[in-house]
Specification:
It is a single chain. By secondary structure, the chain is α+β, with helices and mostly antiparallel strands. It has a single domain, classed as Thiol Ester Dehydrase, Chain A (Roll), CATH 3.10.129. The radius of gyration is 16 Å and the shape is globular. The mean pLDDT is about 90.
Length: about 140
């Protein structure tokens, strides 16, 4: 399976995530739900680290879709290198893509996923243009 990540993507974050024993299922490999947690962990660490914590009484991010392609089974023990990219920057949304590879197998992508992320005003429940500082971070 080929992973389609746009050519105009920008690497915005890289981190390591430990594969936990509890991430596995009865089949002895990482459960599909855990991959979405890895994607969330990478996305949240990047955005929070850049100073964009959600403010329920103000503005912040929501995701409007999420996907993951499973290519090679991950198993415990191990560590994942998650590389997050941003692309398709719009007025109030952009796409994030994250590749996941085992730290002991650099360059071999085990899974890749992403989300469309929208900046919203939570009380008004509607999308808003990105703050300039955020636009600069993504562009």
């Amino acid at each position: 399976m080929r992973i389609e990540i746009p050519d105009d993507k920008r690497l915005v974050h890289e981190m390591r995530i430990a594969i936990r024993w509890g991430d596995m299922d009865a089949m002895g490999h990482v459960n599909n739900v855990s991959y979405f947690r890895y994607l969330e962990t990478a996305r949240i660490e990047w955005l929070n680290g850049a100073g964009f914590q959600p403010d329920p009484s103000g503005e912040g991010f929501v995701i409007i879709n999420a996907f993951c392609n499973f290519l090679i089974q991950l198993e415990y023990p191990g560590e994942i290198v998650a590389k997050t990219y941003a692309a398709n920057l719009g007025r109030s949304s952009f796409d994030s893509f994250t590749t996941m590879e085992r730290a002991d197998q650099p360059g071999v992508i085990s899974a890749a996923g992403g989300a469309t992320i929208v900046w919203v005003n939570f009380p008004q429940q509607k999308s808003m243009p990105f703050p300039d500082r955020l636009r600069e971070l993504i562009a």
